[in-house]
Amino acid sequence: MPPECQTIHLGGASHLRHAGGHLLEVALVPLGLFWLLVSLTNLTGGLFAALGWGVAALGWRVLTRTPIPAILLVTTGLLAARTVVGYTTGSAFLYFLQPTLQNFLFAFVLLVTVPLRRPIIARLADDFCAFPISLTDNPRVTRFFRRVSLLWAVVFLANGVGTLWVLARATLGDFLVVTTVGSYTLVAVAAGASLWWFRRELRGEGIRLRFGSPAAA
Asked: What does the domain layout of the chain look like in residue ranges?
C-alpha cells in the first residue's frame, strides 16, 4: 500500500527572491564591480571594488544583527585570498586562476562530506531555501543529498576544466563573458536536474513538494 500523501510547502516568490538575492550578492555584483572598475581605472581598482562589496555585505549583517549566510562567509574569505594574490602579483590571470582551481576544491569537499549525516551541499541548500525538519530528518532525503553531492562534484570538475581551458586561451573580457555564461548555464541545468530528482525522491515517500504558502496553495 502506498504511503499516505503529504504536502510540504517551501514558499514561493519570496524564496526565489531570497535565492536570487544571494546569487547577486556573492557572485554577480562583485564580478560586475570588478569589470567596471578595471575598465575605468586598473586591475587594483577592480580587485578592491569586488572585495569591498563582500566586506560591506558582511559588515552590514553584523551591524544589523542579521544571520550571515554560509555562502557569503565562504565566498568573501576566498575573495580576500584572491585579492591578496592578485594585488601582490599584479596578475589578472592568477586572480582568476584561484576561483578556477576552487572548482576542484569544491568537488573534493563535496566528495569528502558524502558520508556525513548532512553533507555540505545540504547545509548550503539551507541558505537558499529553508527546509522543514520533517524533510531534513527523512532518511530518503538524507540519501538524496549524498547522491546529489556526487552530481555536483562532477559539475564543479567540468566547470573547472572548462574555465581553466578558456583562461589559458582567451582575453580577460572574453574570459569573463564566456565563463559567466557557460558556468551559470551549467549550474542552471544541474539545479533543474537536482530539483526534478528531489521531487522524484519525495514522491517515493508519498510527499508532494509545492512552492508557495499553504494558504496560497
From this structure: 6-210
